[in-house]
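Private note to self, pasted from the team thread so I don't lose it. Backbone tokens:
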């Protein structure tokens, strides 16, 4: 018999933290907390396998599920001494979703389940609080009505507003028991009117309705979007947790809260969070009432920290916090409820944090001895380092403060004000910088938050939806800026007598919570002490070297600053576009007589020599790979008539003849046309000039600095060995000529890119004439999939959205196809030359997932854009640790 239901709390814990795949994160951790003696209300978890079975079998449950649920529910009844559906001592439960990884606010929750016209009287009697009982009942109808029965939420809200108006009160707390009774009646009428069905009075029917709603919510559009953004497979499914209710809304000695064992924004080792007295859990995250801080140290004079208001429960919570951190060895995000001064734990999970916090917590915990140095390396997601490289506001820049909110997610961002997620997406797609401004955000806004530079909300705290989601995404966020009045209709936001309109620019400082009018200048990030500590640890364990793709002195400097160990790709064509050079480049292409062409090429030589000298100087002896000209010539052709005339004058030819040459040079399929080494073979003077410039620069800088420079000359787009043979021979002849002229020599390498399938397949032959290979995975992806790099945008997103491809193959390597060719190329190449140096210089060189793959292939280095270098260093370290673990276990 399959076990579908696992109990926790009340002395029986059938699950544990390790069972997250089966029980979901919430269920696994509830069982774990209960088993280490923490106060967890008893309950049970229905497994994720039931979710999968439910979807596989057309929304039908396994036959023996009902029996297992009944047994587990009975156990809960016994352990709390209450009975589900009993008129005098009713057990009430919560029903919540819980996937393997947390998906905040994406799926549904129902509280107070089990209330009906009879049990509500029992609750009133046992709690001695009739008002509380009827308030709980109406909350239940509201939640169940909208979540399970699909009644629009606002129908209930409108009714409540009307009732308050009629009673002449503004606060829910002023509504008396008798009035709640009436509201409950009205709520039920609404349900009947909206759905044609009465509100279910039978607790068992309520329970199964809620369970099905949670399983159903796994496939709702919000959850679907979230999964897509976070690479969560639909096949994982969610678990359902049913748990005895405890009440944070039974009076002033009750409370509910959400907190982090350390600051999730900065990583500081202080208890951090928010709570509300006399409230139910959803009130805190929903951002409807403004929550209060936990610790007195973090409270302002007008706030009421839990440490002061509920000192006993606070002390107990501090004790639990310590136990949790020691037990889980990680920062925890916890939910709790205090009922009549007694603390109950409702959730713990490893807390989401900013990159800065992840870094600080990892380093601190390693230094506190909670985790090892290797674990610390694995705790920081490499991609998140991008966030640390965020700009901040220039302290010297002028600024005009508009208002202040909470510093919810760090970094500085400027953009035009936009009030809807849809408009954000539209404008961002056009390349505009925009800031999403909302009173509060909800899961429907997630796509807009993703596309925005930053997010500003006027309501809600540090754990509000906006804050949590923005931090997770690394978006700048200022939350709860209550001084700002937003008017969606008028598309304005106002503070005092200053009104900003949609489209006006603002700047957010997510580190301080400040909102400025207009665009404030920013400065590049400083790489903090913790950052370099982690990078140092990563460098100790990684095997893969990390180089950068750079061709300008600025990029080379940035690359070095970020720890690049050389340049893996210098695209020389980028040097041809400078205003002082492009004229000569055009003359070179457009002239049909070799002597004139030679003159133009000779004019380019000093520029190239200077380019290479600068790079060699900056890289001071580190390896530098320079790729000879690659793109099709047509990219450099004169465009308009004026440009054509300029070239005609310089060459002394007629505009007509040049026009004819221009059309002769244009190709139907330039990416597969006259480019790469094909150019170097048919126009040998171009490559000869570049080789000369490289060698002359290397000799000069070696002399000047005393450092041995070993230039690596790279030939692009080789498909057959003969191509490399011919270009290599010509290059060697040019090198020999330079050596002779200068009366000196130096070491150099000549290698090739492997970026065509044929090159990978025949790599053993190509290796005979290559000193190194660098996999050009951009072109290799293009040619292996037959998928144009420049045109894929029109259909590739559809492929990824609909699961035809798991990821964009230009971002993350297609292991089975392109990856197989990389592996074949590496193995074949090394068959010929066991010490052949192997690297990769396509975009994949900076993608953590692809780096894991390259580690497994045994490449020597990856090369990526300068800003990705830290990401690659960390990813390479994690890949090395993963390989070590794999080897140890095999
Ligand atoms: C490649 O093809 O992967 C590569 C690095 O070259 P480029 O992007 O310049 O074509
Ligand atoms: Mg290429």
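Design output:
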């Amino acid at each position: 018999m399959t076990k579908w239901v696992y109990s926790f709390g009340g002395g029986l814990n059938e699950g544990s933290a390790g069972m997250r795949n089966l029980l979901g994160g919430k269920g696994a951790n509830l069982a774990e907390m209960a088993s280490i003696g923490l106060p967890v209300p008893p309950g049970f978890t229905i497994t994720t396998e039931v979710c999968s079975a439910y979807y596989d079998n057309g929304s039908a449950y396994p036959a023996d599920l009902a029996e297992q649920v009944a047994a587990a529910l009975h156990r809960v009844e016994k352990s709390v001494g209450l009975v589900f559906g009993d008129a005098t001592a009713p057990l009430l439960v919560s029903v919540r979703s819980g996937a393997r990884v947390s998906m905040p606010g994406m799926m549904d929750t129902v509280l107070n389940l089990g209330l009906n016209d009879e049990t509500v009287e029992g609750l009133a009697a046992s709690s001695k609080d009739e008002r509380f009982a009827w308030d709980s009942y109406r909350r239940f109808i509201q939640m169940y009505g909208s979540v399970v029965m699909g009644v629009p939420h606002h129908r209930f809200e409108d009714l409540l507003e009307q009732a308050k108006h009629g009673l002449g009160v503004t606060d829910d707390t002023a509504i008396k028991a008798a009035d709640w009774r009436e509201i409950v009646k009205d709520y039920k009428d609404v349900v009947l009117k909206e759905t044609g069905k009465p509100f279910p009075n039978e607790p068992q029917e309520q329970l199964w309705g809620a369970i099905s709603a949670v399983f159903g919510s796994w496939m709702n559009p919000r959850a679907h979007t979230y999964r897509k953004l976070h690479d969560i497979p639909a096949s994982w499914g969610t678990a359902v947790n049913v748990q005895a209710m405890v009440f944070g809304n039974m009076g002033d000695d009750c409370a509910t809260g959400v907190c982090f064992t350390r600051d999730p924004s900065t990583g500081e080792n202080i208890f951090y969070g928010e709570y509300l007295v006399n409230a139910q859990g959803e009130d805190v995250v929903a951002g409807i009432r403004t929550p209060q801080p936990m610790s007195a140290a973090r409270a302002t004079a007008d706030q009421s920290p839990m440490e002061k208001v509920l000192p006993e429960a606070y002390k107990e919570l501090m004790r639990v916090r310590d136990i949790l951190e020691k037990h889980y060895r990680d920062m925890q995000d916890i939910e709790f409820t205090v009922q009549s001064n007694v603390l109950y734990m409702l959730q713990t999970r490893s807390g989401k944090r900013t990159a800065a916090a992840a870094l600080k917590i990892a380093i601190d915990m390693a230094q506190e001895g909670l985790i090892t140095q290797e674990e610390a390396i694995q705790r920081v997601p490499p991609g998140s380092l991008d966030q640390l490289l965020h700009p901040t506001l220039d302290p010297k820049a002028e600024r005009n403060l508009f208002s202040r909110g909470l510093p919810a997610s760090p970094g500085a961002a400027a953009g035009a004000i936009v009030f809807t997620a849809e408009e954000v997406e539209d404008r961002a797609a056009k390349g505009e910088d925009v800031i999403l401004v909302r009173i509060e955000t909800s899961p429907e806004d997630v796509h807009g938050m993703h596309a925005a530079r930053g997010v500003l909300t006027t309501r809600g705290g540090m754990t509000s939806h906006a804050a949590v989601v923005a931090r997770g995404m690394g978006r700048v966020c200022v939350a709860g800026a209550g001084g700002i009045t937003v008017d969606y209709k008028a598309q304005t936001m106002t503070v005092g007598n200053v009104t900003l309109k949609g489209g006006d620019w603002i700047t957010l400082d997510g580190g301080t919570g400040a909102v400025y009018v207009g665009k404030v200048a920013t400065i590049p990030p400083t790489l903090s002490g913790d950052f370099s500590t982690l990078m140092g640890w990563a460098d100790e364990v990684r095997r893969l070297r990390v180089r950068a793709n750079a061709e300008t002195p600025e990029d080379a400097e940035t690359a070095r600053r970020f720890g690049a160990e050389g340049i893996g790709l210098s695209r020389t064509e980028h040097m041809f576009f400078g205003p002082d050079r492009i004229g000569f480049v055009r003359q070179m292409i457009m002239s049909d007589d070799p002597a004139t062409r030679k003159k133009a090429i000779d004019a380019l030589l000093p520029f190239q020599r200077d380019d290479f000298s600068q790079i060699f100087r900056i890289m001071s002896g580190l390896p530098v790979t320079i790729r000879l000209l690659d793109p099709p010539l047509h990219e450099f052709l004169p465009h308009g008539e004026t440009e054509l005339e300029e070239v005609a004058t310089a060459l002394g030819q007629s505009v007509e003849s040049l026009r004819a040459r221009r059309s002769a040079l244009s190709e139907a399929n330039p990416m597969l046309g006259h480019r790469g080494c094909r150019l170097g073979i048919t126009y040998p003077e171009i490559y000869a000039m570049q080789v000369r410039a490289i060698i002359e620069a290397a000799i000069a800088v070696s002399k000047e600095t005393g450092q041995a420079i070993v230039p690596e000359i790279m030939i692009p787009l080789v498909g057959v060995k003969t191509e490399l043979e011919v270009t290599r021979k010509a290059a060697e002849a040019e090198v020999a000529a330079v050596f002779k002229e200068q009366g000196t020599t130096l070491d150099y390498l000549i290698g090739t890119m492997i970026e065509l399938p044929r090159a990978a397949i025949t790599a053993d032959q190509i290796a005979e004439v290559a000193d190194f290979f660098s996999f050009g995975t951009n072109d290799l992806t293009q040619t292996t999939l037959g998928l144009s790099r420049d045109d894929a945008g029109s259909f590739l997103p559809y492929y990824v959205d609909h699961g035809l491809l798991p990821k964009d193959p230009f971002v993350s390597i297609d292991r089975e196809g392109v990856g197989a060719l990389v592996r074949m190329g590496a193995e074949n190449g090394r068959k010929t030359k066991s010490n052949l140096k192997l690297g990769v210089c396509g975009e994949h060189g900076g993608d953590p997932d692809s780096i894991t793959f390259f580690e497994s292939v045994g490449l020597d280095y990856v090369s990526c854009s300068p800003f990705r270098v830290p990401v690659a260093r960390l990813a390479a370290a994690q890949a090395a640790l993963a390989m070590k673990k794999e080897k140890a276990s095999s």
